[in-house]
Every structure is written in C-alpha cells, then in structure tokens.
# Entry
Amino acid sequence: MGLYLNPGNLEFARALSENVYVDKSELIHYTNDRVNKEMRFMCVSRPRRFGKSMAANMLTAYYSKGCDSRQLFAGLKIEKDPSFETHLNKHDVIRLDVQRFLFDEVCAEGFLNEIQETVIGELKIQYSDYVGEEKNKLPMVLDRIYALTGTRFIFIIDEWDCVFRLAKDRTEIQKKYLDFLRWVFKGAEYVELVYMTGILPIRKYGNHSAINIFREYSMLNPGRIAPYFGFTEVEVKGLCIRYGVDYAETRKWYDGYQLGDVHAYNPLSVVELIENGDFQSYWTGTETYEALKVYIDMNFDGLKEAVIEMIGNGKCKVDTSTAQNDMTTFRTKDDILTLLIHLGYLTYDRETSEVFIPNREIAQEFMRAVKTGGWDGLVQALGRSEKLLEDTWAMDGDAVAEGISKIHQETASILKYHDENSLKCTVLMAYYSAQAYYMPPVLEMPSGHGFADVVYLPKRGIDKPALVVELKWKGSAEGAVLQIKKKQYASWIQGYTGDILLVGINYDREKRHSCLIEKYKK
# Structure
C-alpha cells in the first residue's frame, strides 16, 4: 500500500463514520461498466462542496489492491450489484490529488516533474525489476510495466483543474499540463479507467477540446451520473424526517440545482444545517462573496442587467457553447454566466437554455456581492420593493409610478436608462419582494395573441392577486393596459381563482413614469 499507488481506504472509512452519510455507491456500477471499454475516460466537474472528493475516495477504496474494503461496502447499495465482486480490490490504482503538488502558484513551474517522480518512486518499489532510473517520464515507465507484466492501471485524479484556478494567467503552464495529460492517457494501453474530477470541465483551445478522449459529466451535461453528486429530493426528505428538520425551508435554502431531470441540493450545506440546526448560508465557508464579485463586476454588455434580472427572481437566456472553460478567457456575458454555472452560483435549465439563482443561500451571496462596487443604488432600490408591492395590491398607480421612478433613477448608473429592457430590469428590482409571495416571474409569457412582458403568479396557499405587467417606452400606461386587454394577455391565467391585476407602466421622453392598475374582469 502506498500514498499514490494502491492507497488504502482510510478516507472512505472516515466518510462512512460521519453522523450524516448518504449512500452514493451506485456510482460504482457506472464506472464498472466503463473499465477497459472505449468510454473509460471520465471527467466529472461539479462545484465545491458537491461530494467530488468523497466519490474519488470511495472509488479508490473499491478498486485498490492496497486494501480490503469488503466490510466497508457491506450494506451499501452497490453490494447487490452483479459487478460488485468482479472489481472489488482487484486493480492497480494510481490516486492523485493534484492540489497536493500545486498548493500555490509558486509550485506551478515544477509540479508536473514532482508528480512523475513521486509516482515512479512508488512504482519502483512494487515493480523493481521493470523500472529504471527515469524521474519524469511516467508514460514510458507505465508502458514498460504493461509490456513486460500485462499490468494495467486505474487512475483516480481529484482537483484535476487546480492549475487553471491557482495559476489563472499562466497559459504556458496550463497548456503544458494538458499536453502532459494527453501524453499519459491518449492511446495508452495500460489504462483500464480514468476518473478525473474537479470544478471546471476540460479547457478548450479554439473549437476543440484539449483532450478529446474524455466523456465529460458537468453541471451543463450531467449524464446518467447526475444523482450521485449533490443530494436528491428523496435523500433530503429522508434526512429531514430522520433529524427533525423542516423540509420546506430546507428546499428554499439549498435546493435548485438542475442536473438534467434531477433536482440536486448542496450536500455540504444540508449536512451543516443538520449539524448546526440553523438555516443560513454555509457557502462562505469555502467560497467567499469576493470570488463572485470579481465576475459579476466585469464590464460586459448586458451582464449587469442579467444579474439584476436574476436577483429579481428571473431567468436569463445563455449560450454556453462559446465558453473556454477556464477562469480568464471571456468574450461575452454568456462566458461569465457559464463559468458561474460551473462554480455553483447559477443553475442551468437545459430545456430553455436559461440560467437563474438556485436558492436562498446563493441569493444571499449575490446580495453581499452587489453591496459594494459598481452597483450604486441597487440595494436602496431593492429596499423600496415591499412598499411598491403593497401599493400595487392597493391599485395605487401614482404611488407605483413614483416608486418605480425613484428605483430607475437610483440604478441609472447600472442600466441603459432609455430603453424598454432597462424598464423591465427596473420592474424586476421593484418587485424583488414578490418572491416571498409569488413564483418566479414569467417573462414574455405567451398568452392570447402575444406576449405579456412580466407575469407574477402567486404561490400555492398565498392569497394575493396575480399580476400581468405590460411595459411601454414612449407610449402610455393606458395604452399598456389596453394592449393587455386587446391581445388577451390575461387569458392564459383565467383558471386562477383569485383576483388578477393588470399593471400598465410607461416611461416617456421626459423621464417621467406613469402607471395604471385595473382589476381584470373574467
């Protein structure tokens, strides 16, 4: 048993002994199905705190010849799998945590040589007759061992992407690292399985992936392994019942990550909740708001409007195809939003190609990030939201117009002041408090003979009117309400049994706002 070659199972045993453990062992069925197959190269990217290292430790404990893990897996789901006995502790495993070799940027120059020398040193102990004096030619050593003994290896690599995070601007080192991975794995007959995990997907160069042999399982494309990272709804419900925790409140705080058909909870935050008993943001324990602030403060056209829209509980369209999957190469706001998906600050709906803030925990981090820097007036604007919502329910159009005017002026430095999209962002800020009573706003909801600009539908059990909002630039509030009626924008929600308010808002050439509110007659 070594540190890197055929390590033991201590880390997995520690995870099993924790007060809160959720069985994710069925992941092994999926990896077993890829041993010695064409699809044996896997790269799994998830945000921090999503159980990546624990999964790597579990796979190590299962495959490594350096330990006997039968008792550890007793009673776990994988024990009943037909492939369980086939691979249990029967493989030579090389287990690497890249961050142990690259804990700061100073180490970047020599960390690849150090990785190779360390692994070759342990290979030399076990395969002394087949390893020469090579110090930094790991693929050649592995080729020789395979050629002379037929031995093949499973590689389990954690924090594979730390070079892109710790040496963000060292592109020559990043490329050298990717070339090294290609050298070690591409066309290598000694590889039985490669399981790499990190925060970022594999970086691209131009239009092609730098290592095109890997099947990637990311926050954008989680594949069939989606249930094995993050806690599922069924798992969280079970934990809440077991430990007497309010499930509905847990869902508000930590749910929201969409991984294909799976709704995932932030697992470490759920564990912290159970241990501490308090609903709060545990995100700052590992990711501070400064990291988020760096990206949302970047000067890309439309980025701040998108952030405001999402803070207002809305969703934004995003094109994820152009992102380079590093932390420095940005050409558009979509590249920033895509990175925030991988970092766990946003979640992605594949069906609609939209991003949004997943839960209350992350919403708090966004609010902390916008309290300083280039977000003048936003916090003050959001503070007006509750009164403006009450004025809307009271159908006081003049008060609503005055409130929106103040919010628009307070955020003029953030938004493009003179267009309808700016007015839409202003309205979303104005109704920020609506998220306590309403489902996420529906933007441009198809109904009747056109699209309503913004629709707020009350949450189940909330006795508040639905709001159908139409915005006008250089028109009139009366014209906005007339358009709602004429084009039957409210027809889509006529089945709603409560009241429906039609809200027309206009912004004219003289920077004046007007508002007309009428009750919809069914």
